[in-house]
């Protein structure tokens, strides 16, 4: 008897082990009453389930927004959890193992695009219908950008893209430094209108770190921090870029009608030296090198332990930093302690850098095996998200429950308010982010959203207006990213190798050593880089190189 | 005339293999999970080795992807990053053999000499505990200790010294890896040696004591010979896996500043497979190279041990 019992237990253990190897299943969300005024239409007779990969999967499926969309479209989502930092890795793994979710979310930027193109050609994805007229809102969104044109292979659309919420400023990215203006003020080093030359700004940062203004203790106030993937570029390399079409990450650029490898340019070397010099001076948080994919850098700023932070500074982030800082240090004046700084290039005090974003952020492709019904339901869902009603649902919630829509089109929020007078989001789950990521990357430039304080909106708007007036925009080179070229497709753009080397140099070399070390590395990379460069300058592969921006957009939409 | 041999009464009839297997079915059932493990994770994946000679196309799968000859190996062998990873793997592994391998043996010998049972258990628990912590957690501890604002630098600063970036220092990185590996695994690894020591006949110690042997003599002439065989076996196995340095440890502790000295074959495979345009053919080629090298090292170590008069494992 005991032997049989042991056998049974072992067999169960083995079966459980094997079952553990199957695809994860996410339980349907708990029942929650829906707001009475917004009953779903219930026009779908069949139930559809779509699997998709998302970050923050644990936050999904627990609020009325999610209940509402599931019921409205008679569908369920099977969420496959992943971390943001592994987004490319997971996409590669799923495609290679034939385990692609029904709807694969990808950060379809220049790093992944050529691989995605290969996957399309391999038949990994199912094309969306040629005629999108049954989905007029979606069509209208696509008509307003070239993102969908870039996702067409042989005329067929293989990915829907989420439009960047940066149209007011022509996709100018608010990637910039904010800093402790109160500390600068206290030292008498605050510049008028927060516009600094390179040396003024870093001199001020250095002085703040030495003065122990926040009471952190001797040597415990850091200079500047940034997300690890900005390092070391945001500390001088971006600012010294040639004034040509730019890249999301530093790779190749067309200068005088010829593509060159940017790391081999004089300007890149100057930027690298500038970053190294700042690191040596101790004004960059030394552990930025070690801080991979964590939010520690942001926590340092929020807790008052550092002077400046470089970020993609949308309105939501300005609000977040100000709120967090005041929560940690209540004596601060929320509206003045953190300000956006405008910093000139180390090369020219009249040159200010501005980055341009692609017109979309992230894309969704559907696996080759999905049914037409799944695809249509997804497109219906996208169409709804692009409609006025869907947009308002995404941003604010349910009409008359969460907001009031006035005749002039303005919105009054009915959200609860906290003790500081700020609105509290009634749906803090990931559903809002999920919907935004599918159709519109919201929250960066949300100028009319009443959930933000006007002071935060003003700060953002001032910064963007200032950049549009004074900064030199490095337009995005769509031609480079989205044209298939044999050796580029095969070897990539060497961004990872470049990044690793730049980090190594900034954190370990003296400025005087850089020329020699850099020349040696360029020589080492030449055999790999040259074939790509030759292809990029081959008119058979790249019939169009640089030209006026509108001309390039026109060319890319019709290629 | 035919010979007629009568079976002797009571003589056992030779049973068939299947019958004997059936009679021992519960034993086989016990080893089933182990067999399944090796089958699923060690033998079935061998099928994928062919990828080293193919250009992998996701839609075609492993079998139908086109052959490319030795192209993947050519790419690999001409790539300087690969040789840096090979060099680092071998060096770090060598350091581990030299510094980490003897430590559990010495620890076991010393632990065996502790006479106070409770204290012995306490010390053994303290040494064994880090084994159960993941490298993710330990890397957090290491960062907190060695980062610029970590405990060690704070102490240095408090004593008036100059802070040092330990984790981006190329000269120190390998030492840090080896030190923390020794700290984490020595307690666990010494269990095997302690078990061997308990198998030594206690009468040998008693006889030696009567003959006037002191502790050192007993350790030298009874304990060490008693465990030397197991030490040799573990050494051969360790040398046979010299190309496996510990992916978890390195991936969690290294950073771009120390790729030159810290990038090992496993992290290199991870980077070229998942962090750049995923080239599964090349990464399988690296894996195959690693497996073959490990096999050669294992057989060589085994041969050397036999030459030195030990038994070896093959």
Topology:
The complex is a heterodimer of chains A (559) and B (314).
Chain A: H1 2-20, E1 48-54, H2 64-72, E2 75-81, H3 87-96, E3 103-106, H4 110-121, E4 125-126, H5 136-143, H6 147-150, E5 152-153, E6 156-157, E7 160-164, E8 172-173, E9 175-180, H7 181-186, E10 195-196, H8 198-211, E11 222-225, E12 252-255, E13 258-261, H9 266-281, H10 296-302, E14 306-312, H11 315-328, H12 334-337, E15 338-343, E16 353-356, E17 360-367, H13 372-386, H14 388-395, E18 403-405, E19 411-413, H15 431-439, E20 440-441, H16 454-470, E21 472-474, H17 478-482, H18 486-491, H19 495-508, H20 514-536, H21 549-558
Parallel strand pairs in A: 1-2, 7-20, 10-15, 11-14, 16-21
Antiparallel strand pairs in A: 3-17, 4-17, 5-6, 7-17, 8-16, 9-14, 9-15, 12-13, 18-19
Helix pairs in contact in A: 5-13, 9-19, 11-16, 13-14
Chain B: H1 17-23, H2 25-43, H3 61-64, H4 71-77, H5 80-100, H6 102-113, H7 117-128, H8 135-146, H9 151-158, H10 170-198, H11 202-210, H12 215-239, H13 247-253, H14 259-262, H15 265-275, H16 280-307
Helix pairs in contact in B: 4-16, 5-10, 5-15, 6-10, 7-10, 8-13, 10-12, 12-16, 15-16
């Amino acid at each position: 008897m005991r032997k049989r019992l042991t056998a049974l237990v072992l067999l169960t253990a083995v079966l459980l082990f094997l079952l553990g190897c199957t695809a994860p299943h996410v339980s349907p969300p708990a029942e929650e009453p829906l707001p009475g005024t917004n009953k779903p239409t219930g026009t779908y007779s069949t139930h559809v389930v779509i699997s998709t990969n998302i970050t923050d999967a644990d936050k999904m499926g627990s609020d009325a927004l999610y209940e509402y969309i599931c019921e409205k479209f008679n569908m369920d989502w099977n969420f496959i959890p992943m971390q943001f930092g592994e987004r490319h890795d997971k996409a590669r793994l799923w495609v290679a193992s034939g385990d692609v979710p029904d709807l694969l979310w990808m950060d379809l930027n220049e790093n992944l695009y050529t691989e995605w193109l290969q996957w399309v050609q391999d038949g990994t994805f199912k094309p969306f219908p040629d005629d999108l007229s049954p989905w007029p809102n979606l069509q209208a969104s696509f008509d307003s950008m070239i993102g969908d044109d870039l996702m067409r292979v042989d005329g067929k659309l293989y990915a829907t893209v989420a439009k960047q919420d940066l149209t007011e400023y022509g996709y100018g990215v608010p990637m910039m430094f904010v800093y402790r203006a109160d500390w600068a003020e206290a030292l008498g080093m605050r510049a008028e209108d927060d516009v600094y030359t390179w040396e003024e700004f870093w001199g001020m940062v250095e002085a703040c770190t030495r003065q122990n203004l926040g009471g952190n203790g001797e040597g415990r106030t850091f200079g500047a921090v940034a997300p690890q993937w900005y390092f070391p570029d945001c500390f001088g390399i971006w600012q010294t870029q040639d004034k040509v079409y730019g890249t999301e990450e530093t790779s190749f650029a067309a200068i005088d009608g010829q593509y060159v490898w940017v790391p081999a340019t004089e300007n890149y070397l100057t930027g690298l030296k500038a970053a190294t010099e700042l690191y040596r001076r101790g004004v960059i948080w030394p552990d930025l090198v070690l801080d991979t994919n964590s939010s520690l850098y942001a926590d340092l700023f929020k807790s008052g332990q550092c002077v400046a932070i470089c970020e993609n500074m949308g309105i939501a982030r300005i609000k977040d930093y100000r709120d967090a800082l005041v929560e940690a240090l209540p004596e601060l004046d929320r509206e003045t302690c953190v300000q956006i700084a405008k910093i000139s290039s180390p090369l020219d005090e009249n040159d200010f850098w501005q980055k341009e974003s692609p017109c979309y952020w992230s894309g969704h492709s559907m696996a080759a095996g999905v049914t037409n019904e799944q695809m249509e339901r997804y497109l219906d869902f996208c169409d709804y998200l692009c409609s006025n009603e869907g947009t308002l649902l995404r941003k604010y919630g349910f009409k008359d429950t969460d907001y009031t829509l006035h005749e002039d089109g303005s919105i009054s929020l009915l959200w609860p308010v906290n003790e500081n007078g700020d609105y509290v989001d009634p749906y803090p789950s990931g559903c809002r982010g999920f919907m935004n990521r599918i159709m519109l990357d919201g929250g960066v430039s949300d100028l009319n959203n009443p959930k933000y304080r006007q002071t935060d909106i003003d700060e953002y708007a001032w910064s963007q207006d200032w950049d549009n007036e004074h900064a030199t925009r490095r337009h995005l080179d769509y031609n480079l990213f989205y044209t298939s070229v044999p050796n580029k497709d095969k070897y990539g753009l060497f961004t990872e190798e470049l990044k690793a080397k730049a980090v190594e140099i900034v954190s370990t070399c003296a400025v005087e050593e850089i020329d020699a070390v850099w020349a040696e590395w360029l020589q080492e990379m030449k055999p790999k880089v040259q074939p790509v460069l030759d292809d990029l300058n081959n008119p058979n592969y790249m019939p169009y190189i640089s030209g006026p921006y509108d001309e390039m957009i026109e060319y890319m939409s019709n290629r | 005339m035919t010979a007629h041999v009568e079976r002797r009464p009571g003589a056992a009839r030779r049973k068939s293999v299947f019958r004997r297997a059936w009679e021992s079915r519960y034993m086989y059932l016990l080893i089933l999970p182990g067999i399944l493990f090796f089958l699923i994770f060690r033998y079935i994946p061998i099928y994928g080795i062919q990828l080293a000679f193919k250009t992998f196309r996701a839609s075609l799968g492993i079998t139908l992807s086109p052959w490319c000859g030795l192209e993947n190996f050519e790419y690999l062998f001409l790539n300087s990053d690969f040789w840096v990873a090979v060099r680092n793997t071998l060096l770090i592994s060598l350091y581990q053999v030299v510094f980490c391998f003897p430590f559990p043996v010495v620890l076991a010998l010393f632990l065996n000499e502790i006479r106070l049972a409770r204290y012995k258990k306490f010390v053994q628990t303290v040494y064994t505990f880090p084994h159960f912590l993941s490298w993710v957690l330990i890397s957090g501890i290491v960062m907190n200790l060695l980062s610029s604002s970590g405990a060690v630098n704070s102490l240095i600063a408090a004593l008036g010294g100059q802070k040092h970036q330990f984790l981006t220092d190329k000269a120190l990185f390998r030492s840090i890896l080896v030190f923390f590996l020794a700290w984490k695994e020595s307690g666990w690894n010494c269990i095997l040696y302690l078990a061997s020591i308990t198998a030594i006949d206690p009468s040998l110690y008693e006889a030696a004591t009567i003959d006037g042997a002191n502790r050192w003599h007993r350790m030298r002439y009874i304990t060490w010979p008693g465990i030397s065989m197991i030490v040799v076996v573990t050494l051969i196995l360790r040398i046979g896996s010299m190309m496996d340095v510990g992916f978890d440890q390195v991936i969690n502790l290294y950073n771009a500043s120390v790729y030159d000295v810290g990038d090992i074959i496993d992290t290199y495979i991870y980077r070229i497979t998942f962090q750049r345009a995923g080239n599964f053919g090349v990464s399988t080629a690296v894996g195959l190279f690693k497996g073959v090298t490990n096999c050669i090292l294992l057989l060589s170590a085994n041969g050397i041990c036999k030459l030195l008069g030990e038994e070896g494992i093959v």
